[in-house]
């Protein structure tokens, strides 16, 4: 998979489904930005400091985030040093069965840490940042990319310009346009894409649906969440993503979940004990014809045999199939997602640093090279 700069011609024609796959409706952007300006950020995402505003360029509308280098370490969704150093070190827990490999990778990350800091990427303006781990990007042609770059370098001459969540399955022409306008593509992680079109129901998917039909827990629809449920949603998310995985993940609060749900930005679904508490929850984000799943949580104290995670993923896949949506299943649980029809691809962060001091430009170019030559093979080999 090519990573690098240089002019790349865009395809003469694009399938219609690619043209309108991500919408970024001005209504949704406005609702999201107003939320993060009406409520203190730490009341919404406890481990995040950020400024959020609306950005319009070339008739496109985006949420825009601003982060200062003084705020590092910050949550990785706004802070590349946290993503490429802290989160990367935490991911070495996957190699606990191979202590020598774990030690070697940690040493490599340690050697790269000064390079990441020298890039100055923590002092950034990020386009299309919905503050999720995965932010599907609207189709951008070269003219639009140039307008975005010129607008933002004029407004923020000391900040790197960042666009996350790009991949070759969803965004080939956008990646080509970004590279043609001298954005650098920094590999980030391996993600999994599920498309209903051409995807047969696998045996594992069939078993998941059978489990959903037979579970003693009650299915909770989007309209069925009460005020008391939001605190339980936060607790279930925390059990999985912060306690079981890593506290470096975004710490979404009950206030965040309730506000995002009430304002129609996220849809919720879950399972509860008959007449009792929720035992599992998921939040779905539909942007145009693309679906993501920013929140999954379940009661990790219950037996794995209950299949709570499997049922939450099944609910999301069923939603995607019922509405003909392109489902970006994000990273993690590689084998699980492959067995349910998802395809792996590398995700990139696009960075423009051409207006920054030479030291920062050189650091970004070296990061791009190292991630392409070492990072991507590691991502693919170990399915990170």
Automatic annotation (TrEMBL):
GO terms for molecular function: transferase activity. It comes from the Bacteria. Keywords: Transferase. This is GNAT family N-acetyltransferase. It comes from Mesorhizobium neociceri.
């Amino acid at each position: 998979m090519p990573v690098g700069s240089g002019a790349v011609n865009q395809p003469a024609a694009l399938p219609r489904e690619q043209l309108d796959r991500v919408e970024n409706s001005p209504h949704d952007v406005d609702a999201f930005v107003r939320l993060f300006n009406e409520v203190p950020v730490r009341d919404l995402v406890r481990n995040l400091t950020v400024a959020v505003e609306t950005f319009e360029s070339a008739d496109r509308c985006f949420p825009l985030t601003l982060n200062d280098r003084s705020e590092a370490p910050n949550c990785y969704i706004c802070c590349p040093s946290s993503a490429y150093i802290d989160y990367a070190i935490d991911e070495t827990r996957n190699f606990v069965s191979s202590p020598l490999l774990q030690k070697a990778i940690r040493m490599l990350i340690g050697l790269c840490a000064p390079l990441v800091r020298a890039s100055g990427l923590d002092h950034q303006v990020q386009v299309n940042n919905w503050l999720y781990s995965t932010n599907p990007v609207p189709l951008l042609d070269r003219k639009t990319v140039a307008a975005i770059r010129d607008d933002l370098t004029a407004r923020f001459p000391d900040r790197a310009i960042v666009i996350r969540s790009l991949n070759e399955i969803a965004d080939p022409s956008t990646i080509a346009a970004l590279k043609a306008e001298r954005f650098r593509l920094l590999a980030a992680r391996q993600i999994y894409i599920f498309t209903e079109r051409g995807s047969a129901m696998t045996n594992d998917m069939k078993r998941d649906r059978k489990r959903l039909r037979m579970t003693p827990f009650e299915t909770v629809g989007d309209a069925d969440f009460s005020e008391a449920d939001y605190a339980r949603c936060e607790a279930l998310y925390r059990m999985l993503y912060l306690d079981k995985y890593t506290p470096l993940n975004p710490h979404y609060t009950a206030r965040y979940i309730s506000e995002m749900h009430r304002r129609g930005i996220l849809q919720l679904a879950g399972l509860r004990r008959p007449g009792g508490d929720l035992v599992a929850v998921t939040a779905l984000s539909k942007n145009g014809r693309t679906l993501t799943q920013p929140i999954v949580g379940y009661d990790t104290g219950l037996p794995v045999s209950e299949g709570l995670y499997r049922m939450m993923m099944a609910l999301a896949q069923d939603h995607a199939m019922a509405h003909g949506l392109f489902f970006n299943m994000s990273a993690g649980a590689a084998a699980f997602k492959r067995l349910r029809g998802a395809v792996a691809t590398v995700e990139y962060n696009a960075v423009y640093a051409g207006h920054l001091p030479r030291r920062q430009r050189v650091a970004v170019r070296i990061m791009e090279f190292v991630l392409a030559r070492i990072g991507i093979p590691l991502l693919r080999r170990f399915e990170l």
